[in-house]
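Re: [ENG-882] Designed sequences occasionally contain unexpected residues at chain ends

Forwarding the minimal case from QA. Structure tokens:
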């Protein structure tokens, strides 16, 4: 594998009014990112990720020349910012420019904030849009941690992302490379096709205890989660089955249900992945179905049966080829470089 070239600078614009269909659009690329047809990786940024007290992965950002942190949330198509941060940073605020209702938890999101200048390492955005969420939505102290919101996949729409959660590293690369020539840290790797949902979120098929399910990378979640309607139909157990582990609080109330399951792909076996079993929200329109070769949901947007949380992601080294639409991964402890 060829060595990575020197880092460049990348710029893009976000055009208001395109948030649902395509939240982020590139309009200009600096000369250092000029298109070439060789197979070398061209690195734009190397970013050190911090860890919050509750385990969140904090990415350093610059918003209109103000340094801050955002929680990495790769399972979301959209980036968000809190009401306090949008006001404090004097961002331009408008109504959400589409008719479909968007929610953060149970609360509807009605406004979007535009930053005139946003940076991720050496990747510079001329402008960036963020859905505005309430200050209470983030389960972290925004003042003490300087956390202003969440970083979704919209901000990575036109760069590739290497994510090494175990070592708290995130590297950004040009999308311009030959297919399959991205895993520079290992001679062997596995890959799965990336698919895009109606909201722009990406997902992929993954095998859990011998069954394939549509899966997302949930860096915003501590645990790996699986919905109980899927466990009943695919595996014949649910949160009340006798071999399911439970956690209780000080008052003796059950707070979570877990089961050890085998997560696998070619060359990777996580034998006892601790999977948290959760119920679908009440009155949901989701119905378990099958898309291509994997269990999936019909009737609802942005929801997929399996979410790989940080408990599993710390065991993987990942490269997200966003233009190629392929997810490459190895075990996190592999380092047999080419």
């Amino acid at each position: 594998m060829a060595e990575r070239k020197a880092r460049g600078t990348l710029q893009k614009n976000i055009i208001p009014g395109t948030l649902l269909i395509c939240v982020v659009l590139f309009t200009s690329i600096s000369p250092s990112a000029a298109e070439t047809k060789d197979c070398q990786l061209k690195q734009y940024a190397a970013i050190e990720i911090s860890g919050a007290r509750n385990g969140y992965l904090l990415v350093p950002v610059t918003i209109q020349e103000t340094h801050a942190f955002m929680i990495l949330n790769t399972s979301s198509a959209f980036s968000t910012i809190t009401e306090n941060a949008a006001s404090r940073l004097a961002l331009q605020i408008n109504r959400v420019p589409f008719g479909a209702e968007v929610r953060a938890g149970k609360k509807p999101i009605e406004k979007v904030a535009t930053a005139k200048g946003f940076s991720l390492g050496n990747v510079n955005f001329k402008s960036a849009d963020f859905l505005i969420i309430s200050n209470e939505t983030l389960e972290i102290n925004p003042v003490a941690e300087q956390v202003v919101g969440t970083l979704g996949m919209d901000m990575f729409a036109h760069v590739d992302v290497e994510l090494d959660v175990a070592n708290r590293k995130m590297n950004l690369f040009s999308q311009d490379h030959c297919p399959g020539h991205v895993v520079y840290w290992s001679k062997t790797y596995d890959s799965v096709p990336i698919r895009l949902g109606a909201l722009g979120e990406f997902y992929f098929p993954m095998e859990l205890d011998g069954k394939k399910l549509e899966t997302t990378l949930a860096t915003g979640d501590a645990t790996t989660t699986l919905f109980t309607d899927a466990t009943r139909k695919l595996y014949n157990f649910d949160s009340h089955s006798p071999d399911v582990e439970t956690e209780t609080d000080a008052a003796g109330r059950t707070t979570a249900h877990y089961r050890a399951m085998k997560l696998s792909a070619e060359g990777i076996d996580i034998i006892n992945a601790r999977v948290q079993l959760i119920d679908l929200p009440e009155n949901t329109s989701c119905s378990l179905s099958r898309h291509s070769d994997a269990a999936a949901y019909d009737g609802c947007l942005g929801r997929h049966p399996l979410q790989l949380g940080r408990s599993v992601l710390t065991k993987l080294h990942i490269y997200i080829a966003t233009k190629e639409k392929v997810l490459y991964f190895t075990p996190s402890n592999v380092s047999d470089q080419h």
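QA comment: On inspection the terminal residues look reasonable. The domain at 10-173 is CATH 2.40.70.10 (Cathepsin D, subunit A; domain 1). Proposing we downgrade this to a documentation issue.
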